[in-house]
Amino acid sequence: MTFDDAAILAELDTLRAADAPTHGGRVLSYVYDSGMPQLDALAADAARRMQAVNGLDPTTFTSVAALERDVLAFARDILGGEAGTVTSGGTESCLLAVKTASDLWRAAGGAGVGRIVAPTTAHAAFRKAAELFDLRFDGVPVDPATGTVEAAQLIDRLGDDVALVVVSAPSYPFAAMDPIADVAAACAASGISCHVDACIGGWILPFWPQDLPAWDLRVPGVTSLSADLHKYGYAPKGVSVLLHSTRDRQRAQYFATTDWPGYPVVNPTLLGSKSAGALAAAWAIIKALGAEGFASLARTTSATTQALTAAIAGIEGLRVVGRPTGPLLAVATDEQAAPERRVDPHHWADAARAAGWMLQQQPGLTQADGIHLPPTTHLTVTPVTDAEALVAALVAAADAVRGVPPVDAAQVLGALPAQLPERLDADAAGVLLAGIGLGGEGGLPAQMAPFLALVEALPHQVVERLLVELLARTVES
Ligand SMILES: *Cc1c(COP(=O)(O)O)cnc(C)c1O
């Protein structure tokens, strides 16, 4: 059989050319560019060598065990813990942390619907875990000015029905470092599991040049920690680590069965058959960079983040949320400014996008106590972020939209019928999307601010259904 590989790859190249750029620092989320093409090439070569391997069985494919052993040894060196697992990403690490804690809680006599106690800012993966494992996510409100949570407010929620407490190092939405030592100590005193979600911080904070309060598995009471290699480990997507304080806790993560007529199944992760490509890429990157290489990239990223934070804080009409920790920050409207001098973060991000810089738009949120978190713009900084060029673009974008009021959600809602049905089927949801100019052929509109206003204004259940429809239609022909 012959095939035209050049033509097939040319078609792929055409598709890829329409993507947001994965290199060069123009996209301030999703992608983590080390700025070292040689490192990318090494990672790609390493992944390719594992293409045909099945990571399901490290006794048959012994290279998989060797690579995982090395990656975990390095991870434990910088993050602590007795044992761990390489997973397919942050979400899987978080899901497994919840599954493990929930199983241990039940084994210790926990009954009824267990709770996950976490600040409102904990990653959405923990709401997903609650849904999947029949737990209740109990979000503790954070301060809208700083995005931080009081340790006492989290500790107040502890009880026999708590399966797991989650704190972040730092939180994704606002880069807030949660009060890990105080919360973990209280958890330890009550025999409650405490997970540190360091998915974003885990591979850069150990090398961060500024002093930080202790936040990893060396903090007494922390029982597990997640850290994504496909973020500041600069690996291709599909690799993260989950570490546990003790080997016995890690064993509780496994699923094993001999109760079927096939091969005995022993899975540390959610997946069965799995790729070892991203694992090999991460392993090669760790070999190449070593601690010194990670530290050097962290220094660059830290300097850029500081410069960027100071410059954004100086833009009239905007404010940096709280005191961000690590290579990320969130930006909100400065309510101290006169209304005609304020900058709406969604208009600002739309203007920056028009100039070729992709910031991430985060809708406002009303917390369980009724206190509203403002809409913000999120920026994740990487070693390639060009602070000077970005600041120039951000200043120009702010100048372009200063004084433009936020989109009035009522106006956008006017495009929707007053009475929305309780359950939307695919056709009805499609009609609603079309009514607000979404879900058609053209992809997303250039201006996202109206859409974000809608996300804020509609009941979660309705907007979540519309988002499902929007995404489902992207892969339907
Ligand atoms: C990225 C991230 C996750 C989820 O990770 P994925 O790799 O996207 O599945 C969880 N928590 C935090 C803090 C993150 O930044």
Question: Which characteristics define this entry?
Answer:
477 residues, alpha/beta, 7-stranded mixed sheet, 4-stranded antiparallel sheet, 40% helix, binds pyridoxal-5'-phosphate, pyridoxal phosphate binding, Aspartate aminotransferase family protein
Describe the structure.
Its cofactor is pyridoxal 5'-phosphate. GO terms for molecular function: aromatic-L-amino-acid decarboxylase activity; pyridoxal phosphate binding; transaminase activity. Keywords: Aminotransferase, Lyase, Pyridoxal phosphate, Transferase. This is Aspartate aminotransferase family protein. Belongs to the group II decarboxylase family. Sphingosine-1-phosphate lyase subfamily. The protein has 477 residues and is α/β, with parallel strands linked by helices. Among the domains are: 41-287, 3-Layer(aba) Sandwich (Aspartate Aminotransferase, domain 2), CATH 3.40.640.10; 409-474, no CATH class. It has helices at residues 5-17, 37-49, 62-79, 90-107, 125-132, 151-155, 180-190, 247-251, 277-313, 345-354, 387-401, 409-413, 426-435, 449-457, 460-474, and strands spanning 83-87, 115-119, 136-140, 162-168, 194-197, 224-228, 240-244, 255-257, 265-267, 318-320, 328-333, 360-362, 365-366, 372-373, 376-380. The strands form 4 sheets. Strands 1-7-6-5-4-2-3 form a 7-stranded mixed β-sheet, sandwiched between helices. The protein has a 4-stranded antiparallel β-sheet with strand order 10-11-15-12, with helices on one face. The longest helix has 37 residues, at 277-313. The protein is globular. The mean pLDDT is 96. Pyridoxal-5'-phosphate (PLP) binds at residues 89-91, 94, 123, 125, 168, 172, 197, 199-200, 228.
